[in-house]
Write a structure and sequence with these properties.
The complex is a heterodimer of chains A (about 475) and B (about 250).
Chain A lengths: L2 H14 L1 H37 L6 E6 H5 L8 H6 L8 H8 L4 E6 L2 E8 L2 E10 L13 E2 L9 E5 H7 L10 E13 L3 H7 L10 H5 L2 E20 L15 E4 H6 L5 H9 L9 E6 L5 H10 L2 E4 L2 H43 L1 H9 L4 H44 L12 H27 L3 H6 L2
Parallel strand pairs in A: 4-9, 6-8
Antiparallel strand pairs in A: 1-10, 1-11, 2-10, 3-4, 3-7, 5-8, 6-9, 7-8
Chain B lengths: L4 E2 L13 E14 L2 E14 L3 E6 L5 H9 L6 E6 L2 E2 L5 H10 L1 E4 L11 H11 L7 H11 L15 H13 L5 E5 L7 H18 L2 E6 L2 H7 L2 E6 L2 E7 H4 L1
Parallel strand pairs in B: 4-9, 4-10, 7-8, 8-9
Antiparallel strand pairs in B: 1-3, 2-3, 2-5, 5-6, 10-11
Helix pairs in contact in B: 3-4, 3-5, 4-5, 5-6
The chains are: A alpha+beta (about 475), B alpha/beta (about 250).
Chain lengths: ~475, ~250
């Protein structure tokens, strides 16, 4: 029998026993739906976690220090022999920063700039911590739900407030956007070698924040003065979640300003005293640098390159590996539970088709008497099982999608009540749609194998006698 | 003894069956029933000439329907040979037997055996689907078959909407649609009243005469067998009992 005739006959048979076949198809659909719903939840949660984590600024960052610093991170002290033969630690200065920036897939290299200081707003002083935010942090998840906007440029005199600090300034934090505040800070000003004391004496509070180029270019004396400065900043946004700017950015930054601005302020850092005592007052060096990489996948290669340059590195790459392992096992378990439902549905197919053989025994006999070969009868039952599987699969994907949407809707209603941002709980990628329908089709064919071969083997003489 | 009939004899017939549409050589069919063996057909040799109308007569359980099923290729003999146009059915695989049922023979049953969910047209078209006849050719073949049995006006009716006689005529149209050379009828008038039964017999006779189609009909109605068949073969307990021209046996 030709394929078209086979399909027409199968479709006719399915239509004729409409209720029974519809219920069987619905059974398959429910099985597929549970499988799809479970897997879509697994994939959705995985995507949610991956997206949130990758946009947290942790998974695409490499923390770079001098070798000596890394060993000091709680590791055992180096043996004396090793200390004696060890190469001196490489300096993390601007040269090193430029070379790090030149590594393939590196987006940005920046130091951690964070300092406590005073802010004046509406005539009142507030103590807070200021953090410099790199331009690459614009895509971080922390800024997704922010009120206002991100910095207009790397050197804009703008500030973003963390919500708690904003509430300290005003009960209506939203109304702060567009207003100005004054940042008061102590600028580090190098002293000329032969006139250190005199310069320090001449320095006066209230001086404008503009850079004194003559002082900058003067030969270092090994000392510096702390000069009080003020800077006006326009509030452009309020952020709920504090952004993490790499591993160095875990501290509480409650007033966020562009990193370039923060660096230009030349704030005195705790390490300045040590550098001064060591006489490293020429080129500034950094305790650590954070290297932002284009994607988490490129972290390992960048980390290897940095290690090759003689610096110590640390990334959270291993944690992402464990995360992937966790979600793979999670998806597997969800898939197994979903497959159980499909197995039950498959038993439904076997039952339906076996019942159909009993009911259609005489029909099979007639078909054989009219010239149907065993193969034709087998293919007819196969086609019916396959059609039920295909329809059930498509319906199941649709129901599974609806279940996912319903779960997402319910979750978001709950999150909204908790004043949390909405999330997309389930995700059905195209491979899941194709895979679920194909799986349903082949499982149905497998379920139809026994009934089909039983129907094909039916003795036509006995089948024709059947009433 | 009429030519072509060999009663329980070792046939002189070989594979060469000039002029015979179908013949059997010492064919037997046994069934195991519990521990006993039932000889439904026992060492039967018959030969049916092309264009001949043969009636198989016998009481219930005489083996006539079993013999007809063997001729149709619906069943396989336990021993012996069945030749249809020189091809031994006993040596055919299931695929070849299906081809024999589809192309060489057409079957009519006492219970009509129309598929109740299909219309008359679909029922008649069904053998064409199974024989993989070109779709474009099918409507004409269906119309030709239903016109032959005078049912052209009932094409869209389902079997339940047809009378017994119409259903049997529809079954006849279905048996003829693939233009077989042999028509096998198993008690075709068994479920019909006498008038309708006569009409069906008349139709069979017409088909036999006009199409030169070989007909083997199982019946227990001696009168009709004598009136319409050229030759009558009687069976008893699976064996051939008598055979001869219809006027002789009647």
């Amino acid at each position: 029998m030709k394929l078209r005739d086979l399909t027409e006959l199968a479709a006719r048979n399915l239509r004729e026993a409409g209720l029974r076949n519809s219920l069987t198809t619905l059974g398959i659909a429910v099985g597929v739906a549970s499988l799809v719903a479970m897997l879509s939840l697994g994939v959705g949660l995985q995507e949610l976690a991956s997206t949130r984590l990758s946009r947290s600024g942790l998974f695409d960052a490499v923390f770079v220090t001098t070798q000596a610093n890394m060993r000091a991170f709680g590791g055992p002290p180096r043996p004396a022999a090793e200390r004696a033969t060890a190469q001196p630690a490489r300096k993390l200065d601007d040269d090193a920063r430029q070379r790090l920036a030149g590594i393939k897939n590196v987006v940005e290299v920046y130091p951690e700039v964070r300092f406590p200081t005073e802010v004046q707003f509406d005539g009142k002083p507030y103590m807070t911590t200021v953090a410099g935010i790199p331009a690459s942090a614009r895509g971080d998840g922390a800024f997704d739900e922010m009120k206002g906007s991100f910095f207009s440029g790397p050197e804009a005199d703008e500030a973003i407030l963390q919500i708690e600090f904003a509430r300290d300034l005003s009960k209506q934090s939203d109304s702060l956007i567009g207003k100005e505040l004054v940042l008061r800070y102590a600028e580090k000003e190098p002293l000329p070698a032969d006139d250190a004391l005199a310069t320090r004496a001449a320095a006066a509070p209230g001086k404008d924040a503009a850079k004194d180029s003559a002082a900058n270019d003067a030969p270092a004396s090994g000392g510096f003065a702390l000069v009080p400065r003020e800077m006006k900043l326009r509030i452009i946004g309020v952020v709920e979640t504090e952004p993490a700017t790499g591993f160095g950015g875990f501290g509480r930054g409650r007033l966020l300003i562009p990193l370039q601005i923060a660096q230009n302020l030349r704030i005195a850092q705790p390490t300045d005293m040590r550098e001064m005592l060591r006489g490293n007052t020429g080129k500034p060096s950094y305790e650590s640098l954070t290297v932002r990489v284009s994607s988490p996948q490129a972290v390992q290669a960048v980390e290897d390159a940095i290690k090759g340059m003689g610096f110590g590195t640390f990334s959270i790459l291993d944690a992402t590996k464990n995360l992937r392992l966790f979600f793979t096992v999670f998806d597997l378990l969800l898939g197994i539970f979903g497959s159980l439902a499909l197995t039950v549905a498959s038993l439904g197919i076997i039952n339906t088709l076996v019942m159909a053989i009993l009911e259609r025994r005489r029909e099979i006999g007639i078909l054989k008497a009219l010239g149907a070969a065993d193969r034709d009868v087998r293919r007819l039952f196969f086609a019916e099982a396959g059609a039920m599987g295909l329809l059930g699969g498509m319906l199941g994907v649709a129901i599974g999608w609806l279940i996912g949407r319903a779960l997402t809707f319910g979750t978001n209603v709950y999150l909204q009540r908790q004043e949390l941002p909405p999330i997309d709980l389930s995700s059905i990628p195209w491979w899941m749609v194709v895979g679920a329908i194909a799986f349903s089709f082949f499982v149905s064919l497998a379920a139809g194998m026994y009934p089909a071969s039983r129907a094909a083997r039916l003795n036509p003489v006995e089948a024709l006698r059947y009433e | 003894m009429a030519a072509g009939v060999r009663n329980n004899s070792v046939g002189e017939m070989t594979g060469n069956s000039d002029g015979f549409a179908i013949r059997t050589e010492r064919v037997s069919r046994q069934y195991a029933m519990g521990e006993s063996l039932v000889h439904a057909v026992d060492d039967v040799s018959i030969a049916v000439q092309a264009g001949e109308f043969v009636a198989l007569l016998g009481s219930s359980g005489s083996g006539k329907s079993t013999l007809l099923n063997l001729l149709a290729g619906l069943d396989r003999p336990s021993s012996g040979a069945i030749y249809a146009h020189d091809h031994n059915l006993a040596e055919m695989n299931s695929q070849e037997l299906a081809h024999h049922r589809s192309h060489t023979v057409g079957m009519v049953f006492q219970a009509f055996n129309l598929l109740p969910r299909m219309t008359l047209e679909e029922n008649v078209e069904l053998p064409l689907r199974l024989a993989e006849v070109d779709r474009a050719e099918r409507p004409a073949r269906v119309r030709e078959a239903v016109e032959r049995v005078s049912l052209a006006a009932r094409l869209t009716h389902r079997p339940s909407e047809l009378s017994g006689g119409e259903q049997q005529r529809a079954a006849l149209a279905r048996a003829l649609v693939n233009r077989p050379t042999i028509l096998l009828a198993d008690e075709p008038t068994g479920n019909l009243d006498s008038v309708t039964g006569d009409a069906i017999m008349h139709l069979l006779q017409e088909i036999n005469r006009n199409l030169r189609m070989t007909i083997v009909m199982v019946t227990h109605d001696k009168v009709r067998a004598a009136r319409y068949a050229h030759r009558i073969i009687t069976m008893r307990d699976g064996k051939l009992e008598t055979e001869g021209a219809s006027d002789e046996i009647a």
